[in-house]
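User: quick one
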Amino acid sequence: MAPGPGFSDEKNETLCESESTVYVHNPHLDGMKDDILYHFNLGTSTHNLPAMFGDVKFVCVGGSPWRMKSFIEYIAGELSLEDPKAEYPNICAGTDRYAMYKIGPVLSVSHGMGIPSIAIMLHELIKLLYHARCTDVTIFRIGTSGGLGLEPGTVVVTKQSVDATFLPRLEQVILGNTVVRSTDLDQGLAEELLQCSKDLGQFETVIGNTMCTMDFYEGQARLDGAFCSYTEKDKQDYLTKAYESGVRNIEMESSVFAAMCKLSALKAAVVCVTLLDRQKGDQLISSHEVLHSYQQRPQILVGHLIKKMLQTSASVAVLDKKTVSV
Amino acid sequence: MAPGPGFSDEKNETLCESESTVYVHNPHLDGMKDDILYHFNLGTSTHNLPAMFGDVKFVCVGGSPWRMKSFIEYIAGELSLEDPKAEYPNICAGTDRYAMYKIGPVLSVSHGMGIPSIAIMLHELIKLLYHARCTDVTIFRIGTSGGLGLEPGTVVVTKQSVDATFLPRLEQVILGNTVVRSTDLDQGLAEELLQCSKDLGQFETVIGNTMCTMDFYEGQARLDGAFCSYTEKDKQDYLTKAYESGVRNIEMESSVFAAMCKLSALKAAVVCVTLLDRQKGDQLISSHEVLHSYQQRPQILVGHLIKKMLQTSASVAVLDKKTVSV
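Assistant: Done. Structure below.
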């Protein structure tokens, strides 16, 4: 199998504008009169994308539309950008496929469940950032997951996203042929998130591998799906092997998120809270309140880092100004 | 690769109750005190599932929550079960993962986009129907798709769901091993739907193979994604091969829908309208109104068949009553 569909890490002069641009790798796009981002209900001829999104520096994505609305409310407060009278309108209100919210430099987008669902969203998000001429964008997936050998509520920042055989790769079928893409994530960003957790001191955070599966039940060795042809021992053996390979949590989107962000030169991190320890059970029996409080942890962690990064860039801007005026 | 994870077509005496029951294939389920259907926000200890769902005979599933609400309103009218004052409440109101509506014997459930998203829903739906002791259930997926060699607006009833190499199979990874499942659908039900279209005379309907892909852009040979490493000719060659193998439309959920319904002995059909001819383009440039009217066609077709089947069963009941009273 080829290492990828012809995209090297080297700069493609015809497609990339600068080091910090969001890259698309599609020579056909520039020849299109309009580009309809169908699942967002947005388009280049119907919306002024540079005016709407040109200032975006941070994108947070997560499965649930409700959670992504709650994140924009939270980050507005953290960045002191909130207006008590303001509603945060869903920018994709004309469709129910995804929900999108924006405040200042932060965009929050839902992606549904599973690799295909997040992949559609990312294709259109990457094109949106490209059309809007965004630069220096950092992207976070904030999600939920099953944990391995961790107390429920622990946050896992992904080192590598691995498949169900514990390999750090994504297999995609293009024109009927399987191509393999790298699922590397930004290690520096992961370390910064770990440091944020230490600064905050509110909950446990670890860096570990994340297993990305195509199914929640049989695909994650659960015993409580409609179908199950294996024993409790088979399940435990599989999860033990996963743990031994470095896997600390299991979810359903990280591999294609990592692969597509890498191809687009988006600095990316995956930050998921563990809702249960899969070696101790399959069902989510914790109370609604407990699960809800766990789900806020990736928001708090990412919110803290965004605030820190914005403060740093503001200090740099002040410093630059001083240097110029000297 | 094995032909499946140990589920034969033969009756499993320990798990199946009768010919018409909805089957689960999981010996662990009966040992569980409660079963939390997490993504529906329903459970066996919190809800009386037989009372809520025991009368369900038809389930319609589709990607969009809005469309599934509109279907329940439509079918309520068709079956003269509507109450002009009634709102149809979302049974899964406590979660934003899926939406679910019910009127009389008809259940309408959204499933999001892609195989993983519909698979989670189907695991929990099959368990719901099993816990509710439903019998003789027929299930339809009503969706949208890209067409091949068909006028936009044509409805395709799926003969076989095939993968991106045109083979009628679903590969699933269970405990790290790939298993292959059959994607056969009920041919009699497909023929009945075709007959309904003839009865209605409102739009074109064909029976053909449906290609089920993991991605909307590169996975369906589109030229308008964020990434594209092939030419227009490569795309056309691939779509021509698909057409020659019998594929008439392309979507993202039919294979796992077919496989899981077959395992559960649910009589199943996939009914998707084509929104465009993929050999002529990639973008959805038709007006909102035109696309909306196309999306109603699978609803109209399935609604007509449900009405017909209920009328037939009512006639049989009257006939039975007469026979008894003779």
